[in-house]
Amino acid sequence: MPVPVANGNEWVPGTIAIKEDGGVAGEQLDRIPRHLFVRRFDLFCFCFAMVTYCFDIISDVITAAFHYYDDRAVACLFILLLSVVPSVVLNAVSFAWICDDNYSKAKAVKSRGNQPNGEDERESYFNHALLCIFQIGPLWWYYKALVHGIHFRMESDPIKRRKHFCRMIEAERDATLLRFFEGFLESAPQLIIQGNILSEYLWWHFNEANSIFELPRWVYVQLISMALSLLSVCWSISIQHRSLRMVRPDKVNMHPHESVLQLIWRFSTVASRFIVIVLSVSSYEFKVVPPLVLHFLVSMAHIKALQALNIPSRGLEEGLTLINAAIHTFTPFNMADGPTRWRYAAAYTVEAIEAILFFTFWMRDNSIQFPYKKEAAVLSGVLFVIGTYLSMIHI
């Protein structure tokens, strides 16, 4: 993985590496701030990320178990598939990155004329393989970031502090990318599937019992699971901003209250968007596909117009544009440098128009006998207003 360079008392933008175990890693990294610091809140964020990652997966498995024991095999199967398949993919990627790191270290040792310890190397591969087999490989990167962050705060020697800072942001970047993948490969689809299952059951329950009480236990378990999935999606986006601000000299590291406000912003807007998507899917099923395709095309046009990446590889730029347009199905996400206010304003305007059109048509459709229509529309609208207001303050 890329590593920045220390030169005297300053970090040199865009050049190469620092010493690790006596070797030199000659790779580039984004520019690093001249003044390095790690807050206690940064360490707390690493711990919080590990805890929420575990709870998100565990809650999905428990929810699937409740569905299985209540003879809802199809619901159990869908929830398990969306938990297991992304987890296997993420752990495979994590193990590949670990192998790449180990290979780079062994290569550095050989370049100095030393012979790497084969037994230690095999033990390292075995231990990391076990982590990935037990589906906790991504936590390794958070653990590395946490350890180097603690060492940075405890160390007094400037050279060693820089080394630990580099290792911390390197591990955090990998952890952040894995968490981002997890958010949109696992948590976002889980929200739609579990939300659809829950809305259909509540639809039937409210029409039969006309009460929000006397719900079975699995409903409360699934609500907790959905809340954790929603938190995971929002956290995966928020920490992208934190990671960039921590390593960019032209940015200021986010203060704790800014991180909290950004998380509330994302939580509110994403929750509002998922209410619209889940209600539209549960009400109209496959008829929602054309509007979603139209949203994807509009998002692509918006990204090309306002978020041009201007990178040498045309294929890579087109690929990233497609990925970002898919992410825009759930929430706006900015990948390009430069002012972001108008980019988010344009994306949220599209979401607002879609929500207004949906709720107007949905509430007038007498064939949809969903109870609490007004309450659902008001909740979605209030969340959206809160989130977009905070986004305009934060950006």
TrEMBL record:
InterPro entries named in the record: XK-rel, XK-related_scramblase
Compartments in which it is found: Cell membrane; Membrane
Transmembrane segments: 41-66, 72-98, 125-143, 218-239, 345-364, 376-393
Keywords assigned by UniProt, alphabetized: Cell membrane, Membrane, Transmembrane, Transmembrane helix
Topology with respect to the bilayer: Multi-pass membrane protein
Superkingdom assignment: Eukaryota
One GO term of the biological process aspect: phosphatidylserine exposure on apoptotic cell surface
CC terms in the record's Gene Ontology section: plasma membrane
Protein family per UniProt: Belongs to the XK family.
Protein name per UniProt: XK-related protein
Organism: Ancylostoma ceylanicum
Phylogenetic lineage: Eukaryota, Metazoa, Ecdysozoa, Nematoda, Chromadorea
